[in-house]
Specification:
3 domains; seven-stranded mixed sheet; GMP Synthetase, Chain A, domain 3; 15 helices; Luciferase, domain 3; 27 strands; Rossmann fold; alpha/beta; 553 residues; eight-stranded mixed sheet
């Protein structure tokens, strides 16, 4: 190990033997809530067709033990990685908790992944099995066909992306319902710091990285989220964002579990079904994204409801106050931080449109390009310090180099986001650095898209940047510098991206250019390209270098 990297390892905080969750794990939390809240509804799943399904805490805990017994019969043991490739449904949560019950590791993947992407996740995680849905089975099968070694088994659910039960699953695949026929099995005594789950995030590199959570991470997420959001046993959470993302899995589900409340799950967001679900179930809050809020502006306003707030990236948004008379709580978190790092106060005044102030358990600083703390009111890079494996992710799966590179010499984790701190303690989000786009609720790595485009014959160089979008916040746009003739090149780029990338990663436009703007050392000036996309687009895209400060946001 290089000396610089060794120094980084030495400076990172480490969990002590008496950390916050010593002797505890995910099955411990579920078992306790099963006793304390046995008859209270934990999960209610509302498909877009068919009848709703409901589990009390005790029923859910018993069902998890049965699913775990079925997985054990198929040979799953502690430490095995099991890919959960599903949309929102009860089987997703039962599988996730069953893996924790066995000491196995749940690897959750984006349902919009292409077979190529999914094959990488399966190979990188060294998965032994996969659990999926009928509509996704073909893509999973194609991904498996490219692996060096086959999986032990594939399990297919009845629930199909939130629609009524499907019978599309091939007969040679195992069915999820069969897992429940083997009785129950005792929970494995997993150490709090052992791996519990992996989420693949686009991050900032050309290949996604597997973010590893421990059992302690999950417990920290539940306890911190429920505390920051002020959730109690009478709260009802509506979750429609995908459970394979930290937002729904951590902020919504784990926070609800820790507080002993009720989780109502929909397959996905539906503007026409939203208010009915909120009113009928007595929901008290939902995690939200701009797309949802814009869509609800076009829906009839509901009658009396119990909503206390919407979780959002900014506090007290004037439009929401004016149109819905609902408070919004600002917050910031990411897969690597496990839960919310910044949050506003629901009961006290906050800085308008800010994300909030640091959550207890996290050190936060904002620095300039030279790592010097910025003045209040000035924009800079957000860095976070916490305890890996407890309040911060354990590391990137099978990628020690990327893990160590994410931290500086003093153990600070670089988020890659630009923010502005204020003298009242609140922090405002300014934008994303390090080439990460936010398309709706999805993170998109620009280098990942550029890797696909640069492989297209006739492409000399390219730059993928974000263009503003009213509904999705941002969408990717590709600027392509041809190598020779440009005839048919845009169409070829589009086709390559559609074949290799999930739909939300595919550029909405391919713009052919004669030159790309540069900053110091020849780096493409993406800041200029973003500014051109956000403006009136007068004339061709910029190609000159207006400054030499070398800074690229």
């Amino acid at each position: 190990m290089h000396a610089r990297r060794a120094d980084r390892v030495a400076m990172r905080l480490k969990a002590t033997p008496t950390h916050a969750f010593t002797g505890k794990n995910i099955p411990w939390l579920l078992a306790n809530q099963s006793e304390l809240r046995s008859s209270h509804t934990f999960l209610r799943f509302e498909p877009f067709g068919g009848n709703a399904q409901t589990w009390t805490y005790r029923e859910f805990s018993e069902d998890v033990a049965r699913v775990a017994a079925g997985m054990a019969q198929l040979g799953v043991v502690a430490g095995d990685r099991v890919v959960i490739h599903m949309g929102n449904c009860p089987e997703f949560l039962l599988s996730w908790f069953a893996c924790a019950h066995l000491g196995a590791v749940a690897v959750t993947t984006n349902t919009r992944s292409t077979p190529s992407e999914l094959s990488f996740y399966l190979q990188d995680s060294q998965a032994v099995a996969a659990i999926t849905q009928p509509a996704l089975l073909h893509g999973v099968s194609e991904a498996i066909s490219h692996l060096e070694a086959p999986l032990r088994f594939v399990i297919v659910t009845a629930t199909d992306l939130g629609e009524p039960p499907s019978h599309a699953a091939a007969s040679e695949n195992l069915h999820f319902e069969d897992l429940r026929s083997h009785g129950t099995v005792d929970a494995h005594g997993s150490d709090a710091l052992s791996y519990s789950s992996v989420q693949y995030t686009s991050g900032t590199t050309a290949r996604p990285k597997g973010v590893v959570w421990t059992h302690a991470n999950a417990l920290w997420a539940g306890k911190t989220g429920s505390t920051v959001l002020g959730l109690g046993p009478d709260d009802v959470t509506l979750a429609f964002l995908p459970l394979f993302h930290t937002n729904a899995l951590s902020y919504s589900m784990l926070s609800t579990l820790w507080s002993g409340g009720t989780l109502v799950v929909q397959p996905r967001f539906s503007a026409s079904r939203y208010w009915d679900a909120v009113v009928r179930n007595g929901c008290t809050w939902t995690s939200s994204i701009p797309f949802m809020l814009y869509a609800l502006l076009e829906q009839p306003r509901p009658g009396p409801h119990r909503l206390r707030f919407w979780g959002l990236g900014a506090t007290d948004v004037p439009l929401i106050r004016r149109e819905f008379d609902i408070r919004t709580t600002g917050w910031f978190g990411m897969t690597e931080t496990v839960t919310l790092v910044l949050a506003s106060d629901l009961n006290l005044p906050n800085h308008p449109m800010a994300m909030g102030s640091p959550v207890p358990g996290y050190e936060v600083k904002v620095v300039d390009d030279d790592d010097v703390p910025v003045e209040f009111g000035q924009s800079g890079w957000l860095k976070i310090r916490a305890v890996p494996g407890v309040s911060l992710f354990a590391g990137y799966l099978n990628n020690v180099e990327a893990t160590e590179d994410a931290f500086d010499a003093e153990g600070w984790f670089s988020t890659g986001d630009l923010v502005t701190p204020f003298d009242d303690g609140d922090i405002r989000f300014d934008g994303r650095g390090k080439d990460v786009l936010r398309v709706g609720a999805e993170n998109v790595s620009a280098p990942e898209v550029e890797r696909v485009i640069n492989a297209v014959r006739g492409v000399r160089e390219c730059a993928v940047v974000a263009a503003p979008d009213r509904m999705l916040d941002e969408v990717p746009v590709a600027f392509v510098l041809p190598n020779g003739s440009s005839d048919g090149l845009a169409e070829a780029v589009n086709e390559a991206c559609r074949n290799a990338l999930a739909p939300f990663k595919v550029p909405r436009e391919v713009i052919l250019v004669a030159e790309l703007p540069r900053v110091t050392l020849g780096k493409i000036d993406k800041k200029l390209l973003r500014a051109w996309l956000a403006g009136p687009r007068q004339g061709p895209p910029p190609s000159s270098e207006p400054s030499n400060d070398g800074r690229s946001q």
